[in-house]
Specification:
With 448 residues, the chain is of the alpha+beta class. The chain folds into three domains: 4-103, Rossmann fold (3-Layer(aba) Sandwich); 141-201, 2-Layer Sandwich (Dna Ligase, domain 1), CATH 3.30.1490; 207-447, 2-Layer Sandwich (D-amino Acid Aminotransferase, Chain A, domain 1). Helix content is 34%, strand content 27%. It is built from 15 helices and 20 strands. It has helices at 11-24, 40-44, 63-73, 89-97, 107-114, 116-125, 141-151, 177-192, 249-265, 297-304, 308-316, 395-408, 418-425, 428-431, 439-447; strands spanning 4-7, 27-33, 47-52, 77-79, 101-102, 155-163, 166-171, 197-201, 207-215, 221-233, 236-242, 270-278, 284-290, 333-340, 352-353, 356-358, 365-369, 376-377, 384-392, 410-412. The chain is globular. The model has no long low-confidence stretch (mean pLDDT 97). Bound molecules: adenosine-5'-diphosphate. Residues 131, 156, 162-166, 200, 202-203, 206, 208, 232, 235, 275, 277, 287-288, 437 line the site of adenosine-5'-diphosphate. GO terms for molecular function: ATP binding; biotin carboxylase activity; metal ion binding. Its EC number is 6.3.4.14. It is an enzyme of class 6 (ligase).
Length: 448
């Protein structure tokens, strides 16, 4: 096992990883920007090193500074968390070439899955169902027109190198296709340095269902069931749950098997997530694989009892998974609410000083956060400041527990989306699990 791990991240996920290190008896090294010298992760880690100025480009994305910090502290492995450099295959390669261990999949797996066109091609050969559309890249308007007509409008044009909900355009008619196609190409080129785009049928009422997988370096790969993340705004998830209330046993077996096949196709090591869209008739299609730990991993940890961060570290150190597929059982229901420092309905960011922070507690409530009373939330990074996770025997009880947990939460001094969660949890559509990926945005529009 490693003696020391450097965590190339900040916020709640850095705190989460430091906690796992402590429980495993591993020393932790935090890196922080000048804006984060009072940040929780910098305080909790055994050692902390400043890696540069506030803008992420000069600190949390600064590979040279992070590698220097690792060398200086004699760290043996690097955990990238999520966001920042977590899906940067070149960084993973540099870490490996420097004689350190990358806590994640191989750079090869990351490269294949990081490019949506190559990912879809790989999935096709693995027999994983794909959204109908172009088989690969589309580079001219004639092909775009033919493929869109075959798939039927509306279609979605996506940048192969896109991510985080960026680089996508929905097209409703043939007339608007040429313009959207060339705009998507040039925007992709400008944003990702790669103007490759492809076309998919735009599914109108799908739910977002994703499968958690875990692989070791000995060829073992298991799934840890599904999560549903249909509550989204601008492609950003707001509330997640496990299991999905929409997925029956038969569909669960099929989608989880597809997740394992996807991971096997790239010899996946570590924790990963295969994202699918599921139609009302329960047919499902691969959209992408995230080759990292995800924000919503705690709901899976709670229904399965598997500590995903611990296992990321263990498999990176070469350990074999200590359980097989049949050992992994699902118990009860878990929900996660993402608490963001932003206006609950206008979504304008609200950085500033936290005058009072009081976390909810009690039975089966987990809070992953980096807030404390007196902390100043810097304006440079993500607005998510806490995750509240609850677990209960069934979904109805879990919702009740989350309602009382959200009511207990006190964050004064900055505006948060607490009220959005209160209203959403009380909404009959949410309570009856009658929703799709458009539910939240449609509901917000009606509100105004
Ligand atoms: P990103 O890598 O930017 O997250 P994804 O391919 O995962 O992009 O898609 C993000 C979101 O966009 C999905 O969760 C879904 O809400 C929507 N989306 C993507 N593809 C389709 C599609 N073919 N039909 C309908 N919605 C889609």
């Amino acid at each position: 096992m490693f003696h020391k791990i450097l965590i190339a991240n900040r916020g709640e996920i850095a705190v989460r990883i430091i906690r796992a290190c402590k429980e495993l008896g591993i020393r932790s090294v935090a890196v922080y920007s000048e804006a984060d010298k009072n940040a929780m992760h910098a305080r909790l880690a055994d050692e902390s090193i400043c890696i540069g100025p506030a803008p992420a480009g000069q600190s949390y994305l600064n590979i040279a500074a992070i590698m220097a910090a690792a060398e200086l502290t004699d760290a043996e492995a690097i955990h990238p968390g999520y966001g920042f450099l977590a899906e940067n295959a070149s960084f993973a390669e540099i870490v490996g070439e420097s004689g350190l261990t990358w806590i994640g999949p191989s750079p090869e797996s990351m490269r294949i899955m990081g490019d949506k066109v190559s990912a879809k091609q790989k999935m096709q050969t693995a027999g994983v169902p794909l959204v109908p559309g172009s088989d690969g890249a589309v580079d001219n308007i004639e092909d775009a027109r033919r493929i869109a007509k075959e798939a039927g409008f509306p279609v979605i044009i996506k940048a192969s190198a896109g991510g985080g909900g960026r680089g996508m355009k929905v097209v409703h008619s043939e007339a608007s296709l040429p313009n959207a196609f060339s705009m998507c190409q040039s925007e992709a080129g400008a944003a990702f340095g790669n103007n490759t785009v492809f076309i998919e049928k735009y599914l109108e009422e799908p739910r977002h269902i994703e499968v958690q997988v875990l692989g070791d370096k000995h060829g073992n790969i298991v799934h840890l069931f599904e999560r549903e993340c249909s509550m989204q705004r601008h492609n950003q998830k707001v509330l997640e749950e496990a299991p999905s209330a929409f997925v029956d046993e038969e569909t669960r077996a099929a989608i989880c098997a597809a997740g394992v096949a996807a991971a096997k196709a790239v010899d996946y090591v570590g924790a990963g997530t295969i994202e699918f869209l599921m139609n009302p008739d329960k047919s499902f299609y691969f959209i992408e694989m995230n080759t990292r730990i995800q924000v919503e991993h705690p709901v899976t940890e709670w229904i399965t009892g598997v500590d995903l961060i611990e296992w990321q570290i263990r498999v990176a150190a070469g350990e074999q998974l200590a359980f097989s597929q049949n050992d992994i059982k699902m118990k009860g229901h878990a929900i996660e609410c993402r608490i963001n420092a932003e206006h609950p309905f206008k979504f304008t960011p609200s950085p500033g000083t936290v005058e009072l922070f009081h976390a909810p507690g009690g039975r089966s409530v987990r809070v992953d956060s980096f807030l404390y009373t007196g902390y100043s939330i810097p304006p440079y990074y993500d607005s998510m400041v806490a995750k509240i996770i609850t677990h209960a025997r069934d979904r109805k009880k879990c919702i009740r527990r989350m309602q009382r947990a959200i009511d207990e939460l006190v964050i004064l001094g900055v505006t948060t989306n607490q009220e959005l969660h209160q209203r959403l949890l009380a909404n009959p559509g949410f309570q009856n699990a009658e929703f799709n990926i458009h539910f939240l945005e449609r509901w917000l529009t009606q509100m105004h």
